[in-house]
Amino acid sequence: MCGNVSVIVPTFNNSQTVKTTIQSVLMQKLDEPPDIIVVDDASTDNTVFLVESMGLKVTRNLQNLGLAASLNKGIRLSKSDFVVTLHGDTTPLNGDWLSQLTAPLVLGEADATCSLQHAPLCNGPTCSIWEKFLWGKLGPHHALNDKADGYQKETILKLGGFDEVRFRTAGEDEDMAFRLRLSMARIAPTRAEVRHDHRFDTKSKTRILEKILAKEYTFGRCGGALRRKFPTHRPGAYVYPSVKSPFSDGAFRVCLCIGALIPYLQLICIPGLVGVSLLGINSTKTNTRLGFRIILYPIFNIARFWSYTLGYLHGLVTGRQV
C-alpha cells in the first residue's frame, strides 16, 4: 500500500532533526519508495546540505515565505492523489506509519487523517525547566496540525490550499481544520505514531523562555486572526478529530486575562486564571521530576497566557498572523 502518495516535508533551519525525519520516511515498509518532496524555506543552516546528502532533491524558496506557502508549493509539485505533510522536526515512530496514516484515504473512508503525536522528550540534561513546563503535561494526542497529517489532494485543492496570506508561519493548521469541517470533510484519527522533536536554537535558559513567550504571542495572533476571519464561528479547539469545548479555545484564556484587570470581574477571573494555570501540574511533576521548582509552573503559564492575549488582540485588529 501507499503508492500514489507524496510526503511533503517543509523545512526551515531543521539541521538538528531533519536527517532523522527523512530516514524514518525512507525506512517505511512499502511496496515502492515514497515520493518525498522537500521544500526548504530559505534555511540559513545546513538543512539543505543534509537533505541533499541523502540523495534527495530540495525545492528551495529564494526567500522566507512561511510554512503555509511551503506546504502549498509541495502540494502543487505533487503528482499523487494523496498528500502527507510531515514537519522537518517530526519523526514517525515505526515502519508502518505511512501505511496506517493513509489507509483511510486510500480506502475512501476519510478526506483527512492525523497521527498520534508524542511530545518532545523533556527529561534530558539539555532540556531547560521552561521546556519541561511546556511539554511535560502533554500525553499522546491526535491533532490535525499538519505536523504529520494525510489528505486527499483534491480536498485540499478545492479549499484553495493553506491560507498563506493570513497565516504565514502558524495558524494555517487550525484554519485548515476549521475549513475542512465547514466543507463536511471526514477527519479520521489513526494509529500512526510520531514524535514532535521541537528544538530551540539556543542553550540559554533565558533565551528559551523568551522564544516560548514569543511563540505564544504568535499563536495568539493566529487565534485573533482566525476569529477575525470567521467572526461567528463557535469557540472551540478545531485541530482535534473531535472539536473540544469553548474552554479549550484560546479566547477563554484571553477573557480571563482581560477580566482580571476589570473591577468586580476580578473576583471571578483572577481565581479562574490561577486555576487554569495549574492544569496539568501533576502530570508535569510526574513526568519531569522537577521537585520544588514545580512552584514556578503556574507563574510560567500565566506569563504564557498574557503573551497569547496580547497577540490575540493584535491578530484581532489586523486579521493576520503576521
The CATH homology group name of the largest domain: Spore Coat Polysaccharide Biosynthesis Protein SpsA, Chain A
Number of helices: 12
Q: What gap, in angstroms, lies between the N and C termini?
A: 40 Å
Largest sheet: 9 strands, mixed
Helix content: 40-55%
Shape: globular
Order of helices and strands: EHEHEHEEHEHEEHHEHHHHH
Mean pLDDT: 94
Could you say what the CATH architecture of the largest domain is?
Alpha-Beta Complex
Strand content: 5-15%
* Uncertain spans: none
Query: Cα-atom Rg, whole angstroms?
Result: 20 Å
CATH fold-level label of the largest domain: Spore Coat Polysaccharide Biosynthesis Protein SpsA, Chain A
How many domains is the backbone divided into?
Answer: 2
- The total beta strand count reads 9
Highest-level CATH class of the largest domain? Alpha Beta
Q: Structural class given helices, strands, pairing?
A: alpha/beta
Features:
alpha/beta, Spore Coat Polysaccharide Biosynthesis Protein SpsA, Chain A, 2 domains
How would you sum up this structure, described in words?
By secondary structure, the protein is α/β, with parallel strands linked by helices. The chain is built from twelve helices and nine strands. The chain has helices at 18-26, 47-52, 67-77, 97-106, 129-135, 153-158, 172-182, 205-229, 250-259, 266-277, 281-288, 297-318; strands spanning 5-11, 35-40, 58-60, 82-86, 90-92, 112-118, 141-142, 148-152, 187-196. Strand 2 (35-40), helix 2 and strand 3 form a beta-alpha-beta unit. Helix 9 crosses helix 12. The termini are far apart. The model has no long low-confidence stretch (mean pLDDT 94).
